[in-house]
Design goal:
alpha/beta, Spore Coat Polysaccharide Biosynthesis Protein SpsA, Chain A, 2 domains, 11 helices, 7 strands, binds uridine-5'-diphosphate, binds magnesium ion
């Protein structure tokens, strides 16, 4: 079964066309499918349109109506929780990603890729957005080790195992494509067309965008906390080194050389600043571990038991058992890639 999940926030202008085109694509697939539309507390007619569509296509169009605006990724999570497909495709509701590209993703997904991403061909966004995306994509590539070129494009296909793993994460601020890659074993990318936004404005103001970047960073890694210790150690070493150098020079060239004690004060200040940073870094190490614990991300996905003659329970029960949560690993860098934990 295929699920298409779209978060909707004040998209009344594009909704009817989105529903029409997604239904057309879904019916072409020749397998069971559902379209899950999550209304993210829209102020316009979106919720009404979704309810109407769900009424006229029961069990095919499913509406999830959130009480208030919770953000794109929270809405997506709500949609993933409601979805029942073996493969789940996420898509934006503004028709910037044409639903007609979905079969391309499905083809790869059927070949066994558990996350299929997409790269927007000649992206129709502002230069500022494009530059920001490029920087972020490079950072994510480095930190998750998963080679993908476009993390900002929400047209993606996820295998049910990956979706289940996503749903088990207890964290509130997530950036789904990055989080999902942490659970993927085989990933692929396809190139998809990208259209200009025809109706309405981008739902991301500058502040929301900045917030999203921090969500992305914290989803990915707790390394910045460790950076504090590194900065501290460097400052303290500079202070100590400078202090020693001063002492040697002072003994060989006399009091004039050391600017009558000003440099000595500087060295002492540097050492203390360094110590403070190291202390902050130490706190950071604890916070990072607490952070990992409260997120309760599953440690592993998809495990199969071989060698039992009498397997207990159904395959589904076994899958759930395999996904059972265990306390998060203490490593600070295991965040988005649990397979590398420890
Ligand atoms: N969206 C949402 N809640 C929000 C902001 C956005 O559900 O708080 C949805 C929006 O309706 C759209 C998708 O997320 O379907 C992407 O939003 P948008 O097109 O504004 O982002 P951009 O394309 O500018 O990155
Ligand atoms: Mg958009």
């Amino acid at each position: 079964m295929l699920s298409i999940v779209a978060p909707v926030y004040n998209e009344e202008a594009s909704l009817p066309e989105l529903i029409r085109r997604c239904l057309a694509v879904g019916h072409q697939q020749g397998e069971r499918f559902e379209l899950v539309l999550v209304d993210d507390g829209s102020a316009d007619q979106s919720a009404k349109l979704i309810t109407e569509a769900a009424g006229s296509h029961p069990d095919v169009v499913i509406g999830v109506l959130l009480g208030r605006n919770c953000g794109q990724h929270a809405a997506l999570m709500a949609g993933l929780a409601e979805s029942r497909g073996d493969v789940v495709v996420t898509i934006d509701a503004d028709l910037q990603n044409p639903p007609e590209e979905i079969p391309k993703l499905l083809a790869l997904s059927r070949q066994g890729y558990d996350v299929v991403g997409s790269v927007r061909l000649n992206r129709q966004d502002s230069l500022f957005r494009r530059l920001m995306s490029r920087m972020i994509n490079a950072a994510v590539r480095r930190s998750t080790g998963v080679m993908m070129h476009d993390y900002g494009c929400m047209l993606r296909a996820y295998d049910r195992d990956v979706v289940n793993a996503l749903l088990q994460c207890r964290e509130r601020s997530t950036f789904i494509p990055v989080l999902a890659n942490g659970f993927a074993s085989r990933t692929a990318e396809v190139e998809v067309a990208h259209a200009r936004r025809d109706s309405g404005d981008s739902k991301y103001s500058l502040w929301k965008l900045i917030n999203l970047q921090f969500d992305l960073l914290t989803t990915m890694t707790t390394a910045p906390l460790r950076l504090l210790s590194v900065v501290g150690a460097l400052l303290a070493i500079a202070g100590l080194g400078g202090g020693l150098l001063l002492m040697v020079m002072r003994l060989s060239y006399g009091a004039d050389w050391a600017a009558n004690g000003v440099l000595t004060v500087l060295a002492i200040v540097l050492v203390f600043m360094g110590l403070q940073f190291i202390a902050l870094g130490l706190l950071g190490e604890y916070i990072g571990r607490i952070f990992n614990d409260v997120r309760e991300r599953p440690r592993y996905v998809k495990s199969r038991v071989v060698g039992r003659r009498d397997p207990v329970g159904t395959a589904a029960q076994q899958a759930t058992a395999a996904l059972a949560r265990v306390p998060a690993a203490p490593g600070l860098h295991d965040t988005a890639t649990p397979r590398k934990a420890g």
